[in-house]
Amino acid sequence: MSTSSFANTGTLFGIYAGLGLVIFGIAGNIINIYLLYPTRSIPSSYLLFIASFFNIITLGEALLQRVLSLGFSVDGSSTIMAWCKSRFFVSFTVTLISLTCVCLASVDRFFVTCRSAVWRNRSKLITAKIALLISMVVITSINIPILIYTTITETTSSTGVITRKCSVINPDFVIYQNWVLRPILPGILPGIILGITGWLTYRNVASATGHQLRDTFQRGLTSMVLLQIIVIVIPLAPFAIMSIYQPLTASVPKSAYRVAQETLVSNITNILLYISYASNFYVYLISAPSYRQKFLQLFKCCYHRNHQNNRIGTRTKEQLEINRLSIEKQILPRISN
């Protein structure tokens, strides 16, 4: 493959895969919000409910902007300063908060499935809310430097072409971004937390009796979180590897062919990362029978409501036609007289 083929492949993948994730992901998260709202008094359900809001922001702001930039060369961050600063700040903040919600939900599932009543009693809604609030404050605080050090820079080529790009200007923050903000916070750290808590929860479930997990919805929540962990960790691994590989090899001389290959891999891993934020509804639908029942009830309710509206509309038309004929019958005899 030539370098242009790599570029075209990356563009097409970004358009079709990215737009697919945006559309189906936002739709799925909206359904999640509706279905999880009645059960938000349960800590895990509350955390997944909140995560759905941040998933929508992540897909609509971070992924959609990447798709527009990669596939259609539409990048407002290279011309509008406010967009440049807010884009990366919002992207990093909402993605980390969403991952934090899932991590906290996995910890809660570990508590719920423990044999010890002391550990099970740690699963409380107020605890989940406090932990989430503290996490949101910390995440927002550590991302504030993005607003300070991100700006629009200009580079002039040998032919005199000026290229504007939204980038970080502080060298120390570049190091922090390359080694902490990208590979560790959204990749390695949540992967480790989810891996450990997922394994501990699975071990608890495997050794638990039917009495301990007798609640159908609680069992469903555990299945939802465990499968969600797998779906999150799988795309996180290549993203974290690529995030470490790029700064490690930044000073290595590379041919145009190798640069094109690495750019393609980077674009693919960045797009696939958003599977974690787009797939939760479909994961829950597969893993939890109680969630499927709620979704089917919602679907049937919408179907019957639409069917009823159509019947009402048909009846209204029929009634109007009957009224028209009745009026004509009353008028025609008068005309004939």
What does the model show?
GO terms for molecular function: G protein-coupled receptor activity. It comes from Adineta steineri. It is found in: Membrane. InterPro entries: GPCR_Rhodpsn (IPR000276), GPCR_Rhodpsn_7TM (IPR017452). This is G-protein coupled receptors family 1 profile domain-containing protein. With 337 residues, the chain is mostly helical. It has two domains: 240 residues, Up-down Bundle (Rhopdopsin 7-helix transmembrane proteins), CATH 1.20.1070; 44 residues. The chain contains twelve helices and two strands; from the N terminus they run H-H-H-H-H-E-E-H-H-H-H-H-H-H. A two-stranded antiparallel ribbon has the order 1-2. Strand 1 and strand 2 form a beta hairpin. Helix 1 packs antiparallel against helix 2. The protein is globular and about 70 Å long.
List the keywords.
2 domains; 12 helices; GPCR_Rhodpsn_7TM; mainly alpha; Rhopdopsin 7-helix transmembrane proteins; two-stranded antiparallel ribbon; 81% helix; membrane; 337 residues
